[in-house]
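Changelog-adjacent note: as of this version, every example in the card shows the full chain rather than a window. The one below runs 338 residues end to end.
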Amino acid sequence: MQRELVGTGVTTSAVGFGCAGLFRIPQRNARRLTLDAAFDAGIRHFDVAPMYGLGVAEAELAPFLRHRRADVTVTTKFGIEPTIISKGIAQVQRPMRAYLAKRPSVSEDLKVVGQGPRSGVVGRLLYGSPGYHRQSARLGLERSLRALGTDYIDVFLLHDPIEDLIAEAPSLVDYLNEQCRAGRIRCWGVAGESSELPGIMRALGHTPVTQFRDDIFDRPPTDEYASGAAWITYGALARTLPLLRRFLAQSPDASRTWSERLGMDLAEESTLPKMLLSAALHRNPAGPVLFSTTRPERARVAADAATRSAGLSETELTTFSEFAAAARRASTEMIEIS
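Full-length structure tokens:
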């Protein structure tokens, strides 16, 4: 299933693959198999950034793109870069990832650090920001083109910008539009937290693409982003899937009741991810929905969600939202009791 990033002329698959979580897989060959599985499942959009994989993600994606470049679209970003310390750690990434794979609680804590220089002292040691202006965009674009082994980027985004760090916005926007006309990028935009995006977008003026977190619990005020722009959303599974599964495991009666109401077996492993992605695709008609996995077989589940989303009725969506709300209330009550 394909869709257009509204207003950009860029068409890609409705489901995209986010490469940020790919590096939880210690072995490079296994990471490549996961990318191959996503492509084989029909996924044609791949999201990466210079900071992912402690600075090696773009270069690692390059061999995958080499013979597929005309068939896929790629998002990369600028404004957050790995530091020298981060690049040093990247050299011993395989044993470190293998260690973390055996210690999920430590790995979960480090996900916060992986969010960039605003995620505490360790985050600032690993990542820095040169700011968001014409020169940083130019240097970032040149580096990404070299690292990815390509001569154009489909979607080029300001990465989690802070409004105060956007300097000389008109000059920055002029540069990005110049690169669109030159064919070195096909469209540009902003990736960030939904609470911060409206102010950033006002500072930049018209923003062709916005990338933001969206899940069934807390949907961002997408009306503020509308105005004919494209959306790329992510995070449909990260918070919601563990909570919903915990609710079903702790409430067998509720599991049976909601399975009957929804007409699907909620205990089956792929049901919830497929439904959450289908609902996210329904909420975002203006571009792809990103997902990530470390298990190649799950790529097919994500691709199937795109097909399912087209046939979802409003009744099914409403009932699923009611189920998610009931699970969240139950989770909140359990926390309050404990």
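Structural remarks: Residues 125 and 268 are 42 Å apart (CA to CA).
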